[in-house]
Design brief:
This is BTB domain-containing protein. This protein is an alpha/beta fold and 355 residues long. It contains 15 helices and eight strands. It has three domains: 86 residues, no CATH class; 103 residues, no CATH class; 88 residues, no CATH class. The structure holds zinc ion. The site of zinc ion (ZN) has 8 residues, from loops.
Length: 355
């Protein structure tokens, strides 16, 4: 894909650039130059001034300055003004690809690597004040994430169902219906201010296995057909732990502390309430007795405690209630109470994660 100038360099300081075929437009009217970080060689891109100026306040100001051919200050390459950028060629290429071929970024990968793929373009779009492109790149990340509690519950419910049916989720790919790899998403979100994905991302990371690296798992998947992503009711999902800052690890500990406290608070104190007006005929089988029995069962299941999954615990409670034969006075009130607890926990997560 790289078209190289035919003349070899006569000396180390000779301008001996590369041109990228797919970012070299014959009708382009500006040439951008940036240095390849690995080879220290200039790379040229011939693009359209209007494409840059209409998107970027920085380019708009820069390119609106007079640039006549007779201006001795203006460098020219193949008839077009040449602008040397201080950025790496990789970063410039990422930005231009996001402008000229944005749909490539929207294609999701079974590697769950969207934050890594949009990072360079987002850095450049932010630096050159391309507000609309920033929003579009952020939306690429946001569309992969559950932004509301009910969306997160739906995604986690899919995994619950698979694990309940087969004992574990096992695959050589990470499918798009499951929650993506969270650590790289958190790193991107905290750097470029995308708070909307953080509650679900931190909650998901809390249940990842700190001994399992996402990239190492992927490498094993690629090199050995029998090694897979493996998630059970006790967790096991790997993460790109290396992406996280010290501040993110601290926030993860705060989320862990919050979830553990919420499990104790709601299961021990808030939820065990008697609903007035029970219509059950038998005192020994009143809805309150039934409620306390299933509440106790859901609270004591070791897998919930180990997985720190209070939403999973509450979903389990809802399933148990379906089979509990409660009266029509008590059942909806206990169900509403479960929903209220879920909302309070989600709001608590938002408070910690979106600060
Ligand atoms: Zn009742």
């Amino acid at each position: 894909m790289i078209r190289e100038f035919s003349e070899p360099p006569a000396a180390a300081n000779v301008f001996d650039p590369l041109e990228l075929d797919y970012l070299w437009f014959q009708d382009g009217n500006i040439v951008l130059s940036a240095v390849d970080a690995a080879t220290a060689r200039p790379v040229l891109f011939r693009v359209h001034m209007s494409s840059l100026a209409s998107r970027s306040r920085v380019f708009n100001s820069m390119l609106s300055l007079p640039q006549g051919e007779d201006d001795e200050q203006t460098e020219v390459h193949e008839g077009s003004p040449l602008v040397r950028l201080p950025d790496s060629a990789e970063d410039v290429e990422a930005l231009l690809r996001a402008i000229y071929d944005p749909y490539a970024l929207f294609r999701r990968s079974p590697r769950s690597d969207t934050p890594l793929r949009v990072q360079k373009a987002l850095h450049m779009a932010s630096k050159y004040m391309m507000d609309d492109l920033c929003k579009r790149l952020i939306s690429v990340v946001e569309q992969e994430w559950p932004l509301r509690l009910k969306d997160m519950e739906l995604r986690d419910g899919i995994l619950d169902d698979i694990i309940a049916k087969y004992g574990a989720y096992s695959s050589t790919e990470w499918p798009e219906q499951l929650i993506p790899e969270p650590a790289s998403a958190i790193a991107l979100a905290e750097r470029y201010n995308i708070p909307s994905i953080l509650p679900a991302a931190y909650y998901n990371l809390l249940r990842c296995n700190p001994n399992e690296s996402w990239e190492l798992t992927l490498r094993k998947v690629c090199s050995a057909g029998d090694t897979r992503f493996l998630v059970t009711g006790r967790g096991g999902k790997p993460a790109r732990w290396e992406c996280l800052s010290a501040a993110s690890f601290l926030k993860l500990l705060q989320v862990q502390n919050f979830v553990e406290s919420a499990q104790h608070k709601y299961f021990s104190f808030s939820l065990p309430q008697k609903i007035p007006g029970c219509l059950s005929l038998s005192q020994s089988r009143s809805c309150f007795h039934t409620w306390m029995r299933i509440l106790d069962n859901s609270h004591r299941i070791p897998v919930h405690i180990h997985a720190r999954d209070i939403f999973g615990q509450l979903r389990d409670l809802e399933v148990r209630m379906l089979n509990a034969n409660m009266c029509y006075n008590c059942y909806p009130k206990y169900t509403d109470e479960i929903q209220r607890v879920k909302v309070r926990v989600w709001e608590g997560l938002e408070e910690i994660c979106c600060l």
